[in-house]
Amino acid sequence: MANEFLNIVDALLKCPSIQNTDTRSDIINLLPDDISNNIDYRSSARPHVMSIVKTCQNYEDGLEKLLEVLRTYEGNSLSMQAVDALFLNAEPNQIIEFQQTIPETKDNLTYPKEPKLQRDLASSSRKKNLSNLNSESFAELKEKSWQRNHLCLIAVQDYLYQRPLNFPISDAVRLRDTLTTFYTFAPESITFLTNPTRTELLAKLEELERKIEEDDNLLIFFAGHGEWNKRRRQGYWLPKDAETDNKANWISNSDIRDQLNGFQARHVLLISDACFSGGILDVRKSGNYQEKTIPELQKSSSRQALTSGMKEEAVSDYSEFINYLILRLTENEKDALTAEELYGLLRHSVIYNADNRPEFGVIHKTGHDSGEYVFYRQ
Predict the structure, then answer these.
(1) Which among 140, 158, 217 has a CA at the least distance from the CA of 185?
(2) pLDDT tens per residue, range 122-143
(3) CA–CA distance from 55 to each of 74, 119, 325 (Å)?
């Protein structure tokens, strides 16, 4: 038991989200209250992780809960796969050898050649995520997504009254090309707005509202200036005609929620690469989507957002967020990738290489149930 305990501790300490004090605290806070409230704090990483593991072991499914939360931060990284190996009854010498292949870096961006155990674990992970999945039903969902996926790209960089930006349009083009090349997005389902005014932007969303049906999926991407009003506790998108000292043409988070409330779509994912974009979120503890099959996740509605920064956080014109978003979408080999899994894959890379922290969560009061937006690989 002692060896098993120490193996778990050693594997967890290889995970960047466990190495980082702030994210380690975030992980503890996302555990059930009866577990998190009984974890003794230690100033050094190893004793603190030992305390986390020991406490989780004292509760039924405690370690499983820890892995569930950790996976939302680590995704399918090498370090996460090493942790999973301990719970898939891999041989101890395999685990040690595998852990030694993980570089001692904070970003985990470059990896050695995949050992066989990594490929086996990745395959096991895919099988677990899609357990009891009927291949015909999955094929039908994937085929249906070609007709049901809608993409709305909004890029504003040539402002009338604000400082101009350099990259929103090219970033939107890169995202469009990635989605149409690797995922089930047909060119005819794409709406692309460059430098729209407030009226033009809202009118196009109204047009999409009339077009989109109840089984459709909508992905909205916005890149441009954003603002946060502390007194009103409100975030804003700034369209082309947004004035500096007059909010008449600003688009508030409330405006966006009102628009989303009008859509019949089964699933809506908003990706916002703008300053203060996290204000639209109602960030809550991660759900147990890993326990559901893709068809189960697709039955219930979802209204989610992935943002480049927190609600009171500015982001750079040159976006590491969009760089890693596109990289992770391109690298992905899973047939079905959920939006929350995508967030887990990019979050730490952005944190370690930029001055902002991406966020993912539910868009408050827009009809979210227990579903999940899914990217289907071609």
Answers:
(1) 217
(2) 334 433 343 333 334 788 889 9
(3) 21, 31, 35
Q: Residue 84 is which amino acid?
A: D
Task: Report CA torsion sign: 153, 142, 338, 86.
Answer: negative
Cβ atoms of 83 and 69 within 8 Å: the answer is no
Q: What are phi and psi of 25, to 5 degrees?
A: -65, -40
Q: What distance in Å separates the CA atoms of residue 37 and residue 211, rounded to the nearest whole number?
A: 49
**What tokens were used for 181?**
């090349």
Q: Got the DSSP string for 254-292?
A: HHHHHHHHH---SEEEEEEESTTGGGGEE------GGGS
Contacts of 107 (CB under 8 A, 6+ apart): 16, 348, 349, 352, 353
Domain ranges of the chain: 2-129, 135-376
CA distance 309 to 123: 32
Task: Report the percentage of the chain scoring pLDDT > 70.
Answer: 80
**What is the C-alpha to C-alpha distance for residues 303 and 362, in angstroms, rounded to an integer?**
6
Q: Integer distance in angstroms from the first to the last C-alpha of the chain? A: 45
**Looking at the domain covering 135-376, what would its CATH class be?**
alpha beta
Q: By CB neighbour count within 10 A (0-12 exposed, 13-18 middle, 19+ buried), where does 250 fall? A: buried
- Residue 256: closest CA among 173, 169, 365, 376: 365
Confidence of residue 291 (pLDDT cuts 50, 70, 90): low
Contact partners, residue 204, CB within 8 Å, separation at least 6: 152, 191, 193, 196
| pLDDT tens per residue, range 243-276 | 998 999 999 988 998 898 899 999 999 999 986 5
**What percent of the chain stands above pLDDT 90?**
47
Its sign, for the CA torsion 38, 41, 46, 49, is: positive
Q: Look up residue 133 and give its two tokens.
A: 């999945």
